[in-house]
Write a structure and sequence with these properties.
Helices cover 48% and strands 17% of the residues. By secondary structure, it is α/β, with parallel strands linked by helices. It has a single domain, classed as Glycogen Phosphorylase B (Rossmann fold). Strands 3-2-1-4-5-6 form a 6-stranded parallel sheet, sandwiched between helices. Helix 1 links the parallel strand 1 and strand 2. Helix 3 crosses helix 5 and helix 4 runs antiparallel to helix 5. It is globular and about 50 Å long. It starts with a strand and ends in a 7-residue tail after the last helix. 36% of the residues are buried.
Length: 192
């Protein structure tokens, strides 16, 4: 099976999503699946994994806006990839893939079923920073990325909702994440 993983983080650099993609891709490849990761372009060389191909795409280096920029470029790369080598499953890692409902429907109708992994949400990030500020915790919420989440997180949350509503399957990484998505987006059903 050819699985295209759409991940804004790869290889592991800053956060958990890069590590999840690295290990999941390696595991799926060891089971005999063909894996292609479409990720943001970075300097340096991605670690080689047998059976795992990497496609790097450009992205706008601005807080929050990078998710939409990366998403558009990833969609173009996915469409080209599918013309060369048929994709059987598209695995998006939210919240770093900002596709509209129309874009998800395009993928579902023209490429392959989409499985969206719910790794966290912009609303959760925003609420966490507000809670930290209320309790006068470390001032991590004052850096440009976190300020962008505070001011635009609710707006970018619509892309997460699009992923939940238009994917064939949405899978939360934990019960806590599942409950957050159920509370904020009221999806029909989430797997865990």
């Amino acid at each position: 099976m050819h699985i295209a993983m759409i991940s804004g983080e790869y290889p592991p650099r800053w956060g958990g999503i890069g590590s999840v993609v690295f290990h999941l891709a390696g595991h799926l490849a060891s089971l005999g699946h063909q894996i292609t990761i479409i990720t943001r372009k970075h300097s340096g060389i991605a670690p080689a994994q047998q059976g795992v191909a990497i496609i790097e795409v450009p992205w706008l280096k601005l807080p929050m806006a990078f998710t939409r920029s990366y998403g558009k470029h990833a969609l173009k790369a996915l469409t080209r990839l599918n013309k060369i080598e048929k994709v059987d499953i598209v695995h998006t890692l939210l919240p770093l893939v900002s596709w509209t409902r129309k874009e998800y429907r395009f993928v579902e109708n023209n490429i392959a079923p989409v499985v969206s992994a719910l790794n966290g949400s912009w609303i959760g990030e925003k609420e966490g920073m507000k809670l930290a500020a209320k309790h006068r915790e470390a001032a991590t919420w004052k850096n440009p990325n976190d300020l962008a989440i505070l001011t635009t997180g609710s707006w970018y949350a619509r892309y997460e909702k699009a992923g939940i509503l238009e994917s064939s399957v949405s899978v939360a990484i934990s019960n806590s994440t599942k409950e957050e998505f159920k509370r904020w987006y009221n999806p029909k059903e989430l797997a865990l």
